[in-house]
Amino acid sequence: MKVDNRSVLRQGQIEILGLLYKYRFGSRQLIAESLKVKAGSNIYEKLNVLIKHGFIAKRYDKSLRLQGLPAAYYLTPKGLKTLQSLDAWNYITEATIRSSYRDKNISQSFINHTLDVYSCTNILVKTYPTLKVFMRRDMSRYSYFPNNPPDVFLSLKTGEETTPKRFFFDFISETTPRAAINHRIAQYIKFFDEGGWNETNSELPKLLFLVETIAIKKRLLKAARAIRNQFDVEDDIEIYITTANDIEHAGANRIWISIDDPDSVLSLDDL
What is the SS3 assignment for 174? Predict the structure, then answer.
């Protein structure tokens, strides 16, 4: 007999499962921010109950504690199957459930990257309440994204405009190889140049890159211009860059620098 998981899970617990499905990994602080509650509230207890019943698991050990890194929570296959059984989540695929078995052994660098991206989107949503955030698992439901999609797809409704502004957003850490960054930019430009976005019948998304250091920012400004010049798309593809320090301390407001006009600092709704 199929168990109706709605009878054993409360709404607050389902919301946590939903966030961990969306972001793949999340810390207690990030989950609390998404739910607009204090991290010291009953989030900790809810997470422990979900762990106890096998819906989620936790990645944490002594070495992470010494580095000051938070525990990372993620859905187990049981948790994914439980969500899949609910009407609002029945689009979760068997492939996603199978791939989740890797999460208990996935690299810490991948988890750190995922948590950094999650943190950035929380800051952006706090600054722009109308911002919609689509993570890679969200994007997998649609055919018009690149095979290797961005970290995040953002859709921002501004003022009275009926068409939202759309962005591909990627976080670039200090450890990201220069060749990988250059390949990423070229991949997007080629995707757009070859009509990969035509199916949407909408303007091309602007490319947003958030980098960890000023040194990477300077290097990326130069590299992005050079790579884009290799294609005949200069007027069509806009690229903007900011730093992790800016997004953290400027409230994600006027922080974006265009590769075409690095002297101007813009907010997301100005782009």
Answer: coil
108-127 and 28-35 are packed helices; what angle lies between their axes, rounded to 10 degrees? 20
What are the φ and ψ backbone dihedral angles of 157, each rounded to 5 degrees?
Answer: -90, 125
Q: What is the three-class DSSP state of 138?
A: helix
Residues 41 and 47: beta-carbon distance below 8 Å: no
Residue 52: strand, helix, or coil: helix
Half-sphere exposure of 84 (CA within 13 A, CB side): 17
Number of H helices, E strands in the chain: 11, 9
Angle between helix 43-52 and 11-23 (nearest 10): 80
pLDDT tens, position by position, 226-255: 998 888 776 689 999 999 888 877 666 789
Residue 48 C-beta-side C-alpha neighbours within 13 Å = 5
Please give the C-alpha separations between residue 209 and each of 25, 104, 156, 238, 256, in angstroms, as whole numbers.
21, 29, 17, 11, 9
Cβ neighbour number for residue 40 with a 10 Å cutoff: 10
- DSSP secondary structure letter of residue 71: P
Q: Of 192, 195, 216, 186, whose CA–CA distance to 206 is shortest?
A: 192
pLDDT tens, residue by residue, 173-183: 888 888 999 99
- pTM assigned to the model: 0.91
Q: How far is the C-alpha of 51 from the C-alpha of 251, rounded, in Å?
A: 34
Average pLDDT value for residue range 128-153: 95
